Amino acid sequence: MKTSLRFSNIGKSGKGVKKMKRLALLTVCLFLLGTACVFAQNAAVTTTQTTNMHESYTYNAFGVAVSGTQRLLTTTISTNDEGQRQVTVTETTNQLESTGGSLKVVSSHLESDTASDDGANSHTEGDTTYTYNANGQLAGASGTAHTTGDRGRAPNEDGEMEDLGTFESDTTETYEIRNGQALRTRSVTTGTNFGPDGEETSTFTETTTYDYDLVAGSWQLMSETSHSRSDSRDGSFSDITKTKTYQRNGDGIVTGLSQTATGTQFQANG
Description:
Layout: E1 2-12, E2 27-30, E3 34-59, E4 65-80, E5 85-99, E6 102-116, E7 121-132, E8 138-150, E9 153-155, E10 161-163, E11 166-178, E12 181-194, E13 200-215, E14 218-232, E15 237-248, E16 254-268
Antiparallel strand pairs: 1-3, 2-3, 3-4, 3-16, 4-5, 5-6, 6-7, 7-8, 8-11, 9-10, 11-12, 12-13, 13-14, 14-15, 15-16
């Protein structure tokens, strides 16, 4: 057996810079024990992304590739219209095996770290597996992920910065096969927030659905819609729906991104 190595630079994807006016709170309702807010919000986000890939293949005595490994390192930097940055570094390792006469990805392992200017950070590890039929055609895919992180710091009632605590969550992902592509169509995340003392403060769930269009001969992600619900031990809650929309050119490259959010938040006052 022999192994060959190859390096390549995937390059930069598009970035969206269109600014949108942030909407104020539409309705504020006061209650005896708390405050409920119904709101709609538009936000502008600028995103840049670079990816580098390292490939390694093993060949048999006839010079035919029988297995391989791909490692992709992706850095994504997002900046909102207030200048706050979020940086995500993701390393993805794909294992390839010869199936149906050619190399196919049979499993993918992801490790991702995200850090924001407000001190929030997270670490995610996930795995996706792929199955093929007797002809080597992609037949199915499924994925799971586990995330832990720090929610950062925020000013308290006295204006002093205080730690918000930590969190952990688990995600399951559902895929659909279209024209040989494995498209993630739904993800469900459940998790728990903890205070700085390690005590549970709230639970949360988030369900996201993904929509695609056929662009330049392949299916491209065009929008994501997520519904999240958080319930705190003191009776506070939030119920938010966000929609993220991608703009792409005729080659499928992202040229812009926009996001809107609507929902309700209720804050108990002790």
